[in-house]
Design goal:
The structure holds three protein chains of three kinds. By secondary structure, chain A is mostly helical. Chain A is 77% helix and 0% strand. The radius of gyration of chain A is 24 Å and the shape is globular. Chain C has a single domain, classed as MetI-like (MetI-like fold, Orthogonal Bundle), CATH 1.10.3720.10. Classes of the chains: A mainly alpha, B alpha+beta, C mainly alpha. At the A-C interface, helix 1, helix 6, helix 7, helix 8 and helix 10 of A face helix 5, helix 6, helix 8, helix 10 and helix 11 of C.
């Protein structure tokens, strides 16, 4: 097992390099000039634009730029933002905590809601409770998050004036009132994100449980006279968890993606919002760095999912 | 997400560098309760003392990314740096300069502007200090010129350098700006949004090549009422009072926060409905939404509606955009197959229902009002009788008659034609919901009059790119729509947009500002007079004449004059605002109070 | 081996029953029609698909008729879904938008499911292919989907719209990008099922009796591996429709004059207070379609589950 994990870790490195190459190639070969925002300004003369290109090293062939960029990045240097002239890693470090806090809590909420809901729904299959849970789950992922977010803002911010929809990234939590203020500003994005993910996870949990419920070992467990709750929790759930854990791990990066929209609605200055802004302004160094961070997250959680798979399912042999 | 990357301090526009404020093209309505600019100004004069107010919360839904006005990538950056970095003078809402770092405003009358409009002598306020306590001198201003006007710096404000010969410090309190040629708008350099003066000591390492990697841009030293405490680019700027600010009683607010992110709609809600925010920038929300929001009994905001020369306009192509012409396409020496016929242009203008667009999409005065003038400010320069012109009256029947009498006859498909030439037009603009709705409205009436209309929309970033064939300047379409605006003195704006010399073509790399390739010697003659005339009344007359020529000849079809620079919203409790169409929204923030 | 024999003889026994033999799919259909919710979903979806296909041909209003006198009106006989801010008929726009949205959803899912199942099946069945194919899947899985989607759309939209027109160009691009970035979970699910299934006794039994690889894959393993794929597919249709609307929300979707359901929702969101009917109908349409597709998916899973027969 240990050797398997080490091997997977070693494989992750070429994967990351491959991704960085693919992404850089896409950015470099795209029909849009990374300097188009300078080009968009008719007042910057062409000579000056050429000069900017040179100063930013953009006049070199892109494979050379790529090698420079990757080596710099490996040393933690993501370059300098075209727009703000500040270091990209500073920008990312300023924003990452906001994203991690909102996304992390939202995902925990969704797992805590989805697992029991999915199990109950599967065990009480076709009962009224199952229909209620299923319908809610469908409703949960049938409405776009920007729409549910707006409805929440209308109700809680505008109608009742209870919550704010402007996220204050300067808020420091040091006592109870400031913690309440933090909760008040984070609860809506967390709810929107969390419920959307919970809806999807509930469906997967239910589906996975249903796979296992009719299997022979369940019948055996029942016939041994075990209580229903014991059968469900220590037998069915354990086996059903294999794909579910995989999905939970695989879902983490997707949640970060989902946070892009939520961050827009609630003004959370996270890395998702940074990405959208940078795409809008053509700030290529920031775009490349943020996408790389998403990729690293993704690779790590994939690895985690594989390891979970190996630990949980003894039938799968890895050589 | 239409984030115009280069939408800048739009009120003031460069000589021939055209500034299309286009990108902020969404409609906004204004509350009936909105104070006129002058009313707001008179309610100013806070008796308060420095720092007596608490925190001032400002929301810019396009977040601030840099605090150097000369590297700004949008109005947001110009405005945010304005709290720190100040120009020699600001522009009030009449387009008149107000001293900031200058002790007085140079004019021809007081002898500080030479009679040939070439030399301007600025006397600076004595004893000014930078926020780090060092003295401010004319040398700093002269250095700013060196920084800003070095092409390698690639300053976003370098249009202000066009035609400037030199800026030199005569003595620590006197600055001399010399223009190469006669410059009727002699406040071009050093005044308003693009005139911020940098500290020489801090920026001397940032000139030219080094400008693109300059840490000072995130924490500049300035002379303004505030200085940066904390800046997270793309998110939030926190300011504290500059202890060395010249007025011991100002500013009123102890701290200021400019928060970024979200969209105009959320900003409007935060200012008008929840009151979380004291001042919201550019509330370009659909008129039908903002109007009830701002007018509601419990509304917490006023919408600021002041007008400059930002005009949403239709440009008619006088050159031939036919793709079969190949390299000759849309070159000024080609002739448009039917827009070269003034009757067709007149018919198009007559079938244009600007009133419906103003009422339905711009909230009838909230974000813009209908206008048949292209020079819409300052007041004295606005032509008085254009609304009586037949081309300014919406009348589809008159348009049909105009075409019929000229021999354009409707075919079986309803499209009029003459001698095998069909009135088929391609109509291009940026991707923007208000613009697309405007296109829909226009298409309906133009089709009735006998035109065949194909609508096109191009992303703003492409539309405003010099190099793109979809761009406004190549103008490979028949009609296009965007917003542009001029300086308080419109001479260079007019010559750069409609003068024969300014026709854009491949020969000048599509760099010139006359996109329609209009050319009229009568118009050019008036512009020539404007370059030398020193009597202000006569100048006003000439501008009005020039405006009327453009309108009557349908060189351009103005639609809407838009709130400038942006339709902002302010908390009803906020006092001392003096919004100006010609300067930053935050230009007099030192005078604000609650 | 003994269990395998039992399973084998069991299936022979079923075939030998007096009931006429049915194919796998005929059997599935039989089970499917017993599921009321799934049938209801199928009827609803068929109805909506027919409505968006033929509705615009019959309905007198077009998507672009402007009538300011009728702006922001609630539902009436003339405008059953009300009108938008320019007085355009919302039923016409919802019908037209449905064509685009459903087409995006179904096409994107079909492409990604086909791709994912093929890759997952090969990787799970052929040990030699497993490693390279899974590395490829890992690589794609490591591509952050939404961020990359945004970047790709932003970078390539102009070029594509210029070459094949604004609506078709965006359609091809959105479908293509959604498919290319979404086949991997399916591939992993299929491969995981294949990994555990190929060691099951009935597969070994099939191999013993000399079945070809293709036959084992398509006849024996694939039907057993299909249920997670169907769940993923059903969720995928809704997901693709939602992705399209998310792109609209971020300003990177279809052009504003093309009303898709997502676009309609996006346009209407500011009018929630004044004209709730406007977001209501496109929102309901997305909801109903996703619901219907999911019920169909559930029904199909039950129908295709070999263990739930008879």
């Amino acid at each position: 097992m240990g050797r398997y994990i080490v091997r997977r870790l070693l494989i992750a490195i070429p994967t990351l390099i491959a991704i960085s190459f693919v992404m850089y190639a896409i950015l470099a070969l795209a029909p849009i000039d990374p300097l188009s925002q300078f080009g968009a300004d008719p007042r910057i003369p062409p000579e000056a634009r050429e000069h900017i290109r040179h100063a930013l090293g953009l006049d070199q062939p892109w494979p050379i730029r790529y090698v420079k960029w990757v080596t710099a990045m490996a040393q933690g240097d993501f370059g300098v933002s075209f727009m703000s002239h500040s270091s990209v890693s500073d920008l990312i470090w300023q924003r990452l905590p906001n994203t991690l806090w909102v996304v992390g809590v939202a995902y925990i909420v969704s797992v805590v809601v989805a697992l029991p809901a999915g199990v109950i729904s599967a065990v009480r299959r076709n009962a009224a409770l199952d229909h209620v849970i299923s319908t809610l789950a469908y409703a949960g992922f049938s409405f776009p998050t920007f729409f549910t977010g707006l409805v929440l803002i209308l109700i809680f911010s505008i109608h009742f004036h209870w919550l704010t929809f402007l996220y204050d990234s300067n808020l420091q939590v040091h006592d109870i009132p400031s913690f309440i203020a933090e909760l008040k500003q984070a609860i809506m994005p967390i709810a929107v994100l969390g419920l959307f993910d919970a809806a999807i996870l509930t469906r997967y949990t239910r589906a996975s449980m249903l796979e296992n419920l009719p299997l022979d070992y369940v019948r055996t467990a029942h016939s041994k006279g075990l209580r229903e709750s014991v059968v469900v929790i220590s037998h069915v759930l354990r086996n059903s968890l294999i794909p579910v854990v995989t999905l939970i791990a695989l879902g983490v990066p997707a949640v970060f993606g989902g946070a892009i929209v939520t961050e827009q609605i609630f003004h959370v200055p996270g890395i998702g919002a940074l990405l959208v802004d940078s795409i809008g302004t053509g700030d290529t160094p920031v775009v490349a760095a943020v996408v790389m961070i998403f990729a690293v997250l993704q690779v790590l959680f994939n690895l985690f999912a594989d390891v979970c798979y190996a630990v949980l399912d003894p039938r799968i042999k890895y050589s | 997400m239409e984030i115009p990357t280069w939408q800048r301090a739009s009120a003031i526009v460069g000589t021939f560098g055209i500034l299309l404020t286009a990108a902020c093209g969404s409609a906004t309505p204004a509350a009936s309760s909105a104070p006129s600019a002058s009313a707001a100004a008179s309610s100013a004069a806070p008796k308060a003392q420095r720092g007596a107010g608490g925190d001032l919360k400002i929301l810019y839904w396009q977040a601030v990314t840099i605090l150097n006005p000369h590297q700004a990538t949008g109005t947001k950056d110009n405005d945010a740096s304005r709290l720190i970095i100040e120009p020699l003078a600001a522009f009030d809402n009449d387009g008149k300069p107000v001293p900031v770092l200058a002790a007085e405003i140079p004019t021809v009358a007081n002898g500080e502007v030479s009679k040939d409009f070439k030399t301007v002598t600025w006397k600076l306020k004595p004893g000014l200090k930078w926020s780090d306590g060092t003295p401010f001198t004319a040398d700093d201003a002269a250095f700013t010129y060196t920084y800003q006007c070095d092409p390698k710096t690639a300053a976003s404000t370098d249009d202000r350098c066009d035609g400037v010969q030199s800026v030199t410090a005569k003595d620590p309190n006197t600055l001399v700006v010399t223009y190469k040629d006669t410059q009727p708008f002699f406040y071009q350099w050093g005044v308003g949004t693009e005139g911020g003066v940098l500290q020489k000591a801090q920026y001397s390492a940032c000139v030219g090549d080094k400008a693109k990697n300059c840490p000072a841009d995130l924490k500049p030293i300035g002379t303004g009422p505030y200085m940066v405490q904390d800046f997270k680019p793309g998110d939030v700027v926190d300011y504290v009072i500059n202890p060395n600010y010249r007025d011991p009683n100002k500013p009123f607010f102890k701290t200021v926060q400019i928060k970024g992110g979200g969209d105009a709609n959320a900003a409007a809600r935060a200012v008008c409905q929840t009151g979380d925010i004291d001042y919201g920038w550019n509330l370009q929300v659909e008129a039908t939404i903002l109007k009830p929001m701002a007018a509601a009994a419990d509304s917490k905001c006023n919408i600021l509606t002041q007008y400059g020369t930002s005009v949403e306009r239709l440009v008619v192509n006088f050159a031939n955009p036919d793709p079969s012409l190949g390299a000759k396409r849309s070159e000024p020496d080609t002739k448009h197959p039917f827009f070269s016929d003034s009757h067709v242009r007149r018919a198009l203008a007559m079938a244009t229902d600007r009133k419906a667009i103003a009422d339905q999409l711009y909230g009838a005065g909230l974000a813009g009002k209908d206008s048949c003038n292209i020079i819409t400010a300052p007041e004295a320069m606005v032509a008085k009788d254009s609304s009586g012109f037949d081309v300014c009256k919406f009348d589809v029947n008159a348009a049909m008659k105009e075409l019929q009498d000229d021999g354009w006859v409707a075919g079986p498909d309803g499209v009029r034609a003459k001698g095998g030439v069909k009135l088929a037009i391609t109509f291009n603009t940026t991707v923007n919901s208000v613009r697309q709705k405007t296109q829909d409205i226009l298409k309906q009436d133009w089709t009735k009059a006998g035109f065949q209309v194909t609508l096109k929309s191009t992303p703003a970033s492409t539309f405003f790119t010099n190099t793109s064939p979809e761009g406004a300047n190549h103008f490979f379409a028949d009609v296009e729509m965007y917003t542009n605006s001029g300086d308080p003195d419109p001479t260079s704006y007019m010559s750069g947009s409609w003068g024969c010399d300014a026709r854009t073509s491949s020969a000048n790399n599509w760099q010139k500002g006359n996109y329609g390739r209009y050319c009229n010697p009568d118009f050019d003659k008036i512009i020539a007079q404007l370059r030398t005339e020193t009597d202000q009344n006569k100048r006003d007359q000439l501008v009005q004449q020039a405006n009327d020529i453009l309108i009557k000849d349908v060189a351009i079809i103005p639609l809407i004059t838009r709130v400038a620079p942006t339709p902002d919203g302010a908390s009803k409790q906020l006092k001392g605002l003096a919004p100006s169409a010609w300067d930053s929204s935050l230009w007099n923030i030192a005078d604000w109070s609650k | 081996m003994t269990t395998a024999q039992v399973e084998l003889s069991g299936s022979i026994a079923v075939d030998a029953l007096s009931r006429p033999a049915r194919s796998l799919w005929g059997d599935a259909w039989y089970t499917f029609t017993r599921d009321k919710l799934a049938l209801a979903g199928l009827f609803t979806l068929t109805f909506i698909v027919l409505a968006v296909l033929f509705g615009p041909l019959i309905w007198p209003h077009t998507i672009s008729d402007i009538d300011f006198k009728a702006s922001l009106q609630g539902p009436s006989l003339d405008h059953p879904m009300g009108t938008d801010d320019l007085g355009r008929d919302l039923l016409a726009r919802v019908l037209y938008g449905g064509r685009v949205s459903i087409a995006v959803g179904i096409t994107a899912v079909l492409v990604s499911i086909t791709l994912g199942t093929a890759i997952g099946a090969f990787a799970g069945y052929f040990s030699k292919l497993d490693n390279p194919l899974m590395r490829l899947t890992d690589l794609f899985l490591s591509l952050p989907v939404l961020p990359l989607l945004l970047v790709l759309v932003y970078l390539f939209r102009d070029t594509l719209t210029r070459t094949i027109g604004p609506v078709v160009g965006i359609f091809v691009m959105i479908v293509g990008v959604i498919s290319i970035l979404n086949w991997m979970p399916v591939a992993r699910l299929v491969r995981a099922s294949f990994l555990s299934l190929r060691q099951r006794e009935f597969v070994e039994a099939a191999r013993c009796v000399g079945s070809s690889d293709a036959r084992i894959i398509f006849r024996h393993i694939l039907p057993n591996a299909l249920s997670p794929v169907l769940v993923a597919a059903t969720i995928g249709v809704g997901g693709a429709i939602l992705t399209e609307s998310t792109l609209s929300f971020l300003g990177l979707g279809f052009p504003p004059d093309t009303p898709t359901w997502g676009r309609l929702l996006y346009d209407s969101q500011q009018y929630l207070e004044f004209a709730p009917h406007w977001p209501l109908f496109p929102g309901l349409c997305i909801f109903v379609v996703v619901l219907a597709v999911n019920y169909i998916g559930d029904g199909l899973r039950d129908a295709l589950d070999p263990r739930r027969k008879i």
